[in-house]
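The protein record minuted underneath.
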Amino acid sequence: MEERGSGGWYLFAGVLVPAFVAALGGAALAHGWQTEARAFAACEPTSFGDCLSLGFPLLVVGVIAAVAAVWLAQRVLGTARPELGTLAGLAATIGALLLWEAGHPRWTPPSSDLAALLAGVGFAVGVAVVAVPLPRVLRAASVVALAVPFAVYPVLSRETRRADLADRLGQVGLPLLVSQAKGFQVGSAAADPRRRFLTVTVTRPVDPRTDSTSGERSVSILVVPVPAGFAPPARCGPARTDLPAPEGGPAAPAGPPCRPVGPDHWVRTEADDEVHLLRRGDALVLVDSGWRASDEDVAVVAGSLTELTPRRLAELVH
């Protein structure tokens, strides 16, 4: 098709119409994303796959269809280089979405109005960068600017997730314990201030020269309020697999007895693995094998617990 895009009104329409089409597509896709996210959050699965649906695959098809519609609009209007304009618009829109998502600790669908704005402005900028006659230096600078959100997103997102985790760790009201034994490092941490529990996983890499198995060893550290009736060695609280107890559910049944190995430190056997129990004020700490960790690994971690600040623990995780 003949390109008419260098004239004033044709050029204006060649940018505005694709942007309008993109805005409509963005609003529709955001509405679909919100619907699927709400359905997934409300789903209570009873078996694997219960919460899976065709919604998210259809959203991918919708994105392709919206991008194709933007390209078609440029072709009909005779906008110069519609393929490059579509790619530039898509890059600008994704970059804007990434900057917005960087301010949220988890992927969150934008509102339909915001999605329409991001898509409309993004494709208007992308199409204009390609179709509007610009000096070579300015066009190159525009292309570099389109790449900036992709470069800064990992840094901004990591800082947001770190701040969110530090906030939840500070609200949980339990000692934030990790192991600083040689060879161990913090792998992950999760806290639920409402249910009052903290889970930290520490890992130890495996040296292939001395260990034929692959991967790494992990030890789990669970911190909960001291259970009612806790009176070791006879009553040592629920088993590790029954903690934390389901919210609003019945109290977890009592676990096996334990034996003392030190001040406020006990050990019991659950499923052939040793679980260490330590009391820290009003908190009970349970240390057990997470993945391929030996009883010696668990004992080392239990004997080297160190309390950290919320910010420091969040920094070690992220």
Observations:
- The chain has a mean pLDDT of 91.
- Residues 136-171 form the longest helix (36 residues).
